[in-house]
Amino acid sequence: xxxxxxxxxxxxxxxxxxxxxxxxxxxxxxxxxxxxxxxxxxxxxxxxxxxxxxxxxxxxxxxxxxxxxxxxxxxxxxxxxxxxxxxxxxxxxxxxxxxxxxxxxxxxxxxxxxxxxxxxxxxxxxxxxxxxxxxxxxxxxxxxxxxxxxxxxxxxxxxxxxxxxxxxxxxxxxxxxxxxxxxxxxxxxxxxxxxxxxxxxxxxxxxxxxxxxxxxxxxxxxxxxxxxxxxxxxxxxxxxxxxxxxxxxxxxxxxxxxxxxxxxxxxxxxxxxxxxxxxxxxxxxxxxxxxxxxxxxxxxxxxxxxxxxxxxxxxxxxxxxxxxxxxxxxxxxxxxxxxxxxxxxxxxxxxxxxxxxxxxxxxxxxxxxxxxxxxxxxxxxxxxxxxxxxxxxxxxxxxxxxxxxxxxxxxxxxxxxxxxxxxxxxxxxxxxxxxxxxxxxxxxxxxxxxxxxxxxxxxxxxxxxxxxxxxxxxxxxxxxxxxxxxxxxxxxxxxxxxxxxxxxxxxxxxxxx
Length: 513
Known about the structure:
This protein has 18 helices and 10 strands. The protein is α/β, with parallel strands linked by helices.
């Protein structure tokens, strides 16, 4: 029987290898199998090789018995135990040995909820240079498109770190107001006080640039260090990628020189003797389009609007007196940050995103909102608080050792959904969110920075549906305790997945909403 962490990728790879005819035979490339996700299809199967793909591999789409038996008996690293594999009208349907999968996954949670330090980038160290933070601008000078770029860079930095990559973030935030705003938004970005500056490096850069200056320094506007011929400079530096050949004269400011100095210092830390620009890539964020707003909105105005809406929604739900204490100020701050991050990060970074300023887009009832995700995480905390109070009151016994739990009692459709769509794929979601093809050709690169937000939304929807339908803390009757404990262990796994995923967004776990 297979042991270790089960993986969707490993399972699909093993299934494809077992199903394909010998290499000398012709057949389609790519994956034949796919993992089922919908509740409807998961009632009957967990993986499917569609009939269309089988027709391309076998005469009349009929899988020979020896191959069918080989798939049903498949074992290997990362492959869960298989119950049966049958040929149906839809194709080749495979169902896992679910009680055994429940037992093995829920008995070894750390393999699924803790980050796996296996770099998905080809680089052990990466510099993230967020251009939107360059220059001495405060929060009122930060546009929504620039805010989106900051949030993408912040999340990408944390996702890379979970995969064992060393990340350097530049430039350091100079403006105190902007630093406080980013802290309020729960963005973990270095500030000027946390970094060392090397004035001599700036002086050296000025000397290099002076050699290419086309205007004497005394004739330049205030704040401009020099005016250089970029075209001439590039002609002397063959092989540089990513520059427009039509560019010519460039004004170099003190702010730009400071940012370049920071970039060089970071490069010295992580690249050592490699030239600056080695494996340099541009990750482009699409613009933010605001729906129904006649005037542009700054990042700070956007935050204050969402904060006000979140407070109003909380007052309507819980009452003005209840929402006035200090704890609720922290809760509303966390919910505001979550609302903004899910709005900004749920769309692929390269695409334009539309922002709806109406308060209905951030409520806990809107299933794709950050508030909805945080609300469901808090429900888990409330569930375990309720169980603990029951133990203290003598209603429930203490939680037994996991080895004593009977996971065959997990028979609800929603329980398998949470395990198969939420817990088992989670390590691969983390890896996917940090996937950067640094060695790919061209100057541009893409990242899957929307992966974690989308995953959390789907997990929240599956959990909410299950939680609303199933009474997890049952009556305090001994014959019901076995199922209750098995369900609580599943909920503990879901809670830890939530916690680990939210940490990549720098969002704090909430114990109440």
